[in-house]
Amino acid sequence: MKHLILASTSTIHGSGYLEYILPELDVFFNGIEDILFIPYARPGGITHQAYTEIAQAGFKNINKTVTGLHQYDDPIEAITNAKAIFTGGGNTFLLVQQLYKNHVFEPLKASILRGAKYFGTSAGSNIGGLTMNTTNDMPIVYPPSFKTLGLVPFNINPHYLDPLPNSKHMGETRETRIKEFHQFNTQPVVGLREGSWLEITSETITLRGHLQARIFECGTPPYEVDTNADLSDLK
Amino acid sequence: MKHLILASTSTIHGSGYLEYILPELDVFFNGIEDILFIPYARPGGITHQAYTEIAQAGFKNINKTVTGLHQYDDPIEAITNAKAIFTGGGNTFLLVQQLYKNHVFEPLKASILRGAKYFGTSAGSNIGGLTMNTTNDMPIVYPPSFKTLGLVPFNINPHYLDPLPNSKHMGETRETRIKEFHQFNTQPVVGLREGSWLEITSETITLRGHLQARIFECGTPPYEVDTNADLSDLK
């Protein structure tokens, strides 16, 4: 029985850390006091401890206690025993490399599949998909694989960004990049705009937040789905 | 004796393919008729043949003949015999994966070090650096290594983009990404803006084009260098 929230971002413009999604998290983590935080993605290269303190301050607003995975002598045991897990954003290459290096990739997946509640933002949501091939991050380290947890049967592109009108920059748009991805991979990609999240309860996948999401299926033109859309059949 | 041009981009806004740099290429390839084109990066997923035809049309303006590497039965022999090589942009992960898969990585490096003239744009310039860890591209395929040709003793970030004023998007800026890179890697990074290129003659490395470049050295604040700056001591 899966219970997941996979969010595009931790923070929306002009708002505090997790602020936009705290009411949702309050309901999602109802009855849970302690949340295990995976700080491996280290946004901007901050330390595990500094990152954990940011997560602690965010969750304090809904009276949850947060402990960083780096604080445990045995991270596998910590993940196995956790009732609720939060993986924050940062660099997906680093996050995935560290999950493999610390041998917590399979325990994390097993724990979530047994029912531990899982909340991810950005890189932490990316790893909920089949692979990390649709991350936006810079490949600052070389992970042993791009395979991720496969908690949903598609890939996620967090921080999905529409083409900027009047841009004179010649780098690829996000849509062009995902089109390139589909030359070599067949799974769908959900482009999650900032402020959107996927709510997964057992096998039901629902788009939440105020915005539409953009869906990319291999071989067909991309299309928009409205908030509250049921994405359970996307695979 | 190395002769290289590593350009940020093939195309600047409002101008045709290679148009801005054709006068430079005309001088650089003086005395050479045939250019071997490496089409592996496949921008937007186009075929090797379609990509080669774009390169052919571009170089026709300075009366050069272009042949795609995919047209040869023996790509190693083609690279070993080439007097001039051009690698176009697209996806760096795909380019690097294909260089390794087709066993042309070492022959390409050897050919350039023996004196074959090399021109790269975007992904084709990225591979001139020590590693591809500072590419902007989406990791659509998994290459066997992030190590690249090391023709210059630093990394390159092509299409370097300054932070957008007033952006409400919460994804990392380019500068933040390179800062994260320097948490795990020590080599300098040259942020090459569109319209800039590096000219390498033997061990002399010079910034060309009209714009400044942004230099990131590990442990010190980034700084700007002017066009025609000598970057030979950057390592």
UniProtKB/TrEMBL annotation, chains A, B:
UniProt cross-references to Gene3D superfamilies, sorted A to Z: 3.40.50.880
Entries under CDD domains matching the protein: GAT1_Peptidase_E (cd03146)
GO molecular function, one term: serine-type peptidase activity
Family membership: Belongs to the peptidase S51 family.
Keywords: Hydrolase, Protease, Serine protease
Keyword Hydrolase: yes
GO terms, biological process: proteolysis
Protein name: (Alpha)-aspartyl dipeptidase
InterPro entries cross-referenced by the UniProt entry: Class_I_gatase-like (IPR029062), Peptidase_S51 (IPR005320)
Organism expressing this protein natively: Mangrovimonas yunxiaonensis
Protease in keyword set: yes
